[in-house]
Write a structure and sequence with these properties.
Blueprint lengths: L1 E5 L6 E2 L9 E8 L16 E3 L6 E5 L3 E10 L15 E5 L1
Parallel strand pairs: 2-3
Antiparallel strand pairs: 1-5, 3-4, 3-6, 6-7
Length: 95
């Protein structure tokens, strides 16, 4: 089932991957997983979605059931900021 995800942020700006600007970055959406390595580039796969183009909205297919979602802001090289700029992990139920 498609799930519409709109991303908002305060205090930082959005910039595409590869664009090095202070206080900016691009989002990484973690689906049913947690980021364990904050020192290197975030993985990119179906559970770790990169929005390197600076996107702030997407539709993701989610199967019925319970899912966790979390956003982590990466720098121009996909590396999480120090300290991390991230959302709380939320739990949703798809019916």
């Amino acid at each position: 089932m498609p799930f519409l995800c709109r991303i908002r942020m305060k205090g930082m700006g959005v910039a595409p991957a590869g664009v090095k600007k202070p206080k900016t970055g691009h989002h990484h959406l973690l689906i049913d997983t947690a980021l364990e390595d904050y020192e290197n580039a975030a993985p990119s796969d179906k559970m770790n979605r990169h929005f390197g183009g600076g996107q702030t909205q997407t539709t993701i297919p989610l199967s019925p059931g319970t899912h966790t979602l979390q956003l982590v802001l990466g720098d121009h090289n996909h590396i999480p900021h120090k300290p991390p700029v991230q959302s709380k992990r939320i739990t949703i139920t798809v019916k």
